[in-house]
Design brief:
The chain is mostly helical. The protein has one domain. 55% of the residues lie in helices and 0% in strands. The protein is built from 4 helices and no strands. It is elongated and about 60 Å long. It starts with a helix and ends in a 5-residue tail after the last helix.
Length: 78
C-alpha cells in the first residue's frame, strides 16, 4: 500500500496526463502493483531501468553518463 500511496501523492502530480505516452507509462507502473504474481528480479530491474531512462530525458547531456562505452572513449593508439 505504501507504493500505491507514493504513486498517488508524489508521482501522479508531476505526470503530464495529457501526454499519452507519459500517462501510459504511469498507468503501467500503477498496474504492476495489482499483478497477482510477484515480479521476478529481472522484471523489477527492467522496469526500474525503463523509468530511470525516462527520467534522464529531462536532464541535459552534460549531466548524464556518456552514451558511448568506456572502450570507445579511451584512445588505444600511443
Amino acid at each position: 500500500m505504501n507504493a500505491l500511496r507514493y504513486l498517488q501523492t508524489s508521482i501522479a502530480e508531476v505526470v503530464n496526463h495529457e501526454d499519452e505516452s507519459e500517462s501510459a507509462l504511469f498507468r503501467t507502473q500503477s498496474a504492476v502493483l495489482f499483478q497477482r504474481r510477484p515480479l521476478t528480479m529481472p522484471e523489477i530491474f527492467d522496469s526500474r531501468t525503463q523509468v530511470h531512462e525516462e527520467i534522464l530525458n529531462f536532464f541535459p547531456a552534460s549531466l548524464k553518463q556518456p552514451k558511448e562505452t568506456l572502450v570507445s572513449l579511451v584512445p588505444l593508439s600511443r
